[in-house]
């Protein structure tokens, strides 16, 4: 029965996630691995996040301007862009870009480790492979995604500024003032970062689970990578809805 | 753990995978200090036997004794016991993000409290024993197949385990590299007083260094004795395997999928 | 990925610094800067017959300067008017007891906020006290309807659910 199989699968994934948390011990080696993973999944995702952010900022500004112009409220454009970014666009789009770049690489690396006997070797050396290979990646994702979301926002807002002020002709002072008035530090800015942390953890757990349990063959690795991106993207979108409803529901 | 107890003793062991018996009625004694070759056709259950020796697979019946005591079932005790068993895997299992030296140092750093300088010395010693001291700062992807296998061997020896298990150590190696590995296995076994079990189907490279040989086929041990006795056997299945004949007890035309060999 | 020891650490350190700096700049340049997490505020109450578009966390301003926000909105089940709890920053402790509160909108499409007009009394409102003088929100549509179609008709007390007696006024965008 597919329902039972799906529930068991969910249960296994849940247990895996728990074991990742349990295996996270702050040793020197762990921090060395953590630093390495932050580089691999954070620093190397910067270019795609930065470019993505800039273009999203430009598009939303253009879109928003057209919508607001009808009501003569075009100087509210920065509020529209800022709120739209912080509340929904930045956490979700950054997470999706992250899933595509870093999530797929996590799944691929773990799948490859499985296929080249690295995970078995760790087990035979009495080293917990989850603590060594998975936990650093998880924490690196939780740390990096909020930072990447911050980058995304800063580039999007900068691009929006250039579009609004230098192309459309909004007054520069108005732009910043309206933006600052509209965006609440706690309810918008911090919430965006909190959402990102949740998305980062989710993406890492999904990608790790799929990669870790891949078939130890070349095919297995490639199947794992695809599954990781699909499942992680869907979960991000689902959790985004849940979090938004919960946080902005009032 | 008395000095004359065997390194490994399997008593009437039955191993199952997925409900099916892969090996049955296995009785095996591996004397200390010997090199035992475990031979057999592909799919005969050699890897399953290996899994039983490392505790990965629990026997469905019988007992598995390693280094004088039965293998524990409880995870923590099993992990502790694994530190006394060195395993060289087919895929090497070298961590790609670490250098050769860091790979070899990994068991030492994780399981001992030795200071950095001492670990570095030990790593240098192990690498020197396999002839790769100069490769210490290379990454695994920069190594040739034979070099990677030797690094994996050095790492398996890092904690000086009394028992070494080699899973198909000659896979993918050219004749010279194969020769190097077999020579290393023999030399290290003698100089370090190890017990070695080599699981392989490379009969002609393995037999010269082995003290004892067993052949697994059809889910059982079909031969157990010295290499000389093995060469002289009259069992047709063993003879087919030794001589590499395409047809014989293991038929050329594969049977319908009723029972694998 | 073959970045080694010290270079790797430098790269990660640079990434983290850059990211944290950009977060800091973002927080300062694009948010309202309400960094205080604590309750450095005291509550005041005010009753209104009509809230209009007022919502919780709407700002409370004196003369255009934000001094607090709307913490809670409840309906009094006995008198059926809205009881609004204002959270006023502790820095503005001495609001006179004859301060008045009104619900205003920032521009035609802006959000509602509460504007306070301090009076001249020497005594100050204490935490939890109620502001005595309040003006309800103005329903813009009703007012437009009244002037455009009414003429003499006195609009009844603006009621959230009632529609103007004449044809529903079309909302033409004001130039």
Describe the protein in words:
The complex is a heterotrimer of chains A (250), B (261) and C (175). The mean pLDDT of chain A is 91. Chain A has 250 residues and is mostly helical. Chain A contains 9 helices and no strands. Chain B is of the alpha/beta class and 261 residues long. Chain B is 34% helix and 23% strand. In chain B, helix 4 packs across helix 5. Chain B is globular. The mean pLDDT of chain B is 87. Chain C has 175 residues and is of the alpha/beta class. Helices cover 21% and strands 27% of the residues of chain C. In chain C, a hairpin with a 6-residue loop joins strand 3 and strand 4 (82-89). Chains in contact: A-B, A-C. The A-C interface holds A 35-36, 38-40, 42-43, 46, 70-73, 76, 82, 147-148, 150-151, 153-154, 157, 176, 179-189, 193, 250 and C 1, 3, 8-9, 11-12, 14-16, 18-20, 22-23, 25-27, 29-35, 37, 56-57, 109, 173-175.
Overall shape of chain C: it is elongated
Radius of gyration based on Cα positions of chain C? 24 Å
The overall pLDDT average of chain B reads 87
Shape of chain B: globular
Number of helices of chain B: 9
Distance between the termini of chain B: 37 Å
Placed side by side, the strands forming the largest sheet of chain B appear as 6-7-8-3-9-10
Distance between the termini of chain C: 60 Å
Tell me the structural class of chain C. Answer: alpha/beta
Helix proportion range of chain C: 10-25%
- Residue share in β-strands of chain B: 15-25%
What's the Cα radius of gyration of chain B?
Answer: 19 Å
The count of strands of chain C amounts to: 8
Q: Percent of residues of chain B in helical segments?
A: 25-40%
Structure class of chain B:
alpha/beta
Instruction: Name the pair of protein chains with the most residues at their interface, and give those residue counts.
Output: A-C, 35 and 31 residues
Characterize the biggest β-sheet of chain C: 8 strands, mixed
């Amino acid at each position: 029965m597919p329902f039972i199989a799906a529930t068991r699968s969910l249960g296994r994934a849940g247990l895996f996630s728990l074991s990742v948390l349990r295996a996270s011990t702050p040793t020197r080696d762990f921090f060395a691995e953590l630093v390495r993973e932050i580089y691999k999944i954070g620093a190397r995702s910067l270019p795609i996040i930065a470019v993505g952010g800039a273009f999203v900022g430009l598009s939303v500004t253009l879109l928003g301007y057209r919508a607001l112009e009808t009501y003569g409220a075009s100087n509210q454009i920065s509020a529209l862009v800022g709120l739209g970014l912080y509340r929904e666009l930045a956490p979700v789009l950054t997470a999706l870009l992250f899933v595509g770049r870093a999530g797929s690489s996590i799944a691929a690396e773990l799948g490859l480790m499985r296929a080249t006997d690295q995970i078995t070797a760790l087990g035979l050396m009495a080293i917990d492979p989850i603590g060594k290979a998975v936990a650093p990646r998880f924490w690196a994702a939780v740390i990096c995604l909020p930072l990447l979301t911050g980058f995304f926002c800063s580039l999007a807002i900068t691009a929006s500024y250039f579009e609004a002020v230098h192309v459309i002709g909004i007054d520069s002072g108005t732009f910043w003032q309206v933006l600052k008035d509209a965006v609440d530090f706690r309810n918008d800015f911090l919430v965006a970062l909190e959402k990102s942390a949740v998305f980062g953890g989710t993406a890492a757990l999904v990608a790790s689970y799929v990669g870790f349990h891949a078939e130890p063959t070349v095919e297995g690795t490639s199947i794992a990578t695809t599954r990781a991106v699909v499942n992680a993207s869907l979960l991000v979108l689902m959790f985004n809805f849940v979090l938004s409803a919960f946080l902005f529901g009032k | 753990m008395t000095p004359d107890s065997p390194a490994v003793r399997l008593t009437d062991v039955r191993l199952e995978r997925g409900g099916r018996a892969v090996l049955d009625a296995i009785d095996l004694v591996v004397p200390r200090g010997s090199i035992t070759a475990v031979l057999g056709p592909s799919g005969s259950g050699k890897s399953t036997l290996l899994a039983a020796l490392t505790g990965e697979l629990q026997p469905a019946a019988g007992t598995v004794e390693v280094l004088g005591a039965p293998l524990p079932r409880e995870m923590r005790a099993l992990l502790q016991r694994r530190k006394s068993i060195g395993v060289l895997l087919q895929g090497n299992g070298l961590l790609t993000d670490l250098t050769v030296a860091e790979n070899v140092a990994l068991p030492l750093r994780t399981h001992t409290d030795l200071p950095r300088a001492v670990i570095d010395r030990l790593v240098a010693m192990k690498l020197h024993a396999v002839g790769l001291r100069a490769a210490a700062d290379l990454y695994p992807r920069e190594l040739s197949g034979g070099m990677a296998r030797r690094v994996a061997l050095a790492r398996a020896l890092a904690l000086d385990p009394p028992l070494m298990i080699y899973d198909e150590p000659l896979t993918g190696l050219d004749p010279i590299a194969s020769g190097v590995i077999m020579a290393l296995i023999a030399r290290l076994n003698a100089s370090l007083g190890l017990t070695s079990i080599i699981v392989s189907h490379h009969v002609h490279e393995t037999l010269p260094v082995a003290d004892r040989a067993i052949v697994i086929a059809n889910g059982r041990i079909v031969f157990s004795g010295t290499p000389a006795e093995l060469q002289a056997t009259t069992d047709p299945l063993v003879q087919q395997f030794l001589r590499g004949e395409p047809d014989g007890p293991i038929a050329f035309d594969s049977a319908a999928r009723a029972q694998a060999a | 990925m073959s970045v080694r020891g010290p270079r790797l650490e430098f790269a990660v350190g640079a990434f983290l610094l850059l990211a944290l700096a950009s977060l800091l700049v973002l927080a300062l340049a694009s948010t309202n800067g309400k960094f205080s997490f604590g309750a450095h505020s005291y509550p005041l109450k005010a009753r209104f017959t009509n809230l209009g578009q007022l919502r919780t966390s709407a700002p409370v301003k004196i003369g255009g300067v934000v001094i607090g926000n709307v913490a809670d909105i409840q309906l009094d089940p006995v008198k059926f008017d809205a009881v609004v709890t204002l959270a006023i920053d502790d820095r503005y402790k001495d609001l006179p007891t004859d301060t008045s509160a009104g619900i205003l909108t920032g521009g035609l499409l802006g959000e509602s906020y509460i504007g306070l007009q301090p009076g001249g009394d020497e005594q100050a409102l204490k935490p939890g006290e109620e502001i005595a003088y309040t003006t309800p929100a103005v329903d813009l549509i009703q007012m437009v309807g009244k002037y455009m179609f009414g003429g003499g008709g006195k609009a009844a007390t603006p009621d959230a659910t009632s529609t103007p007696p004449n044809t529903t006024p079309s909302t033409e965008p004001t130039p």
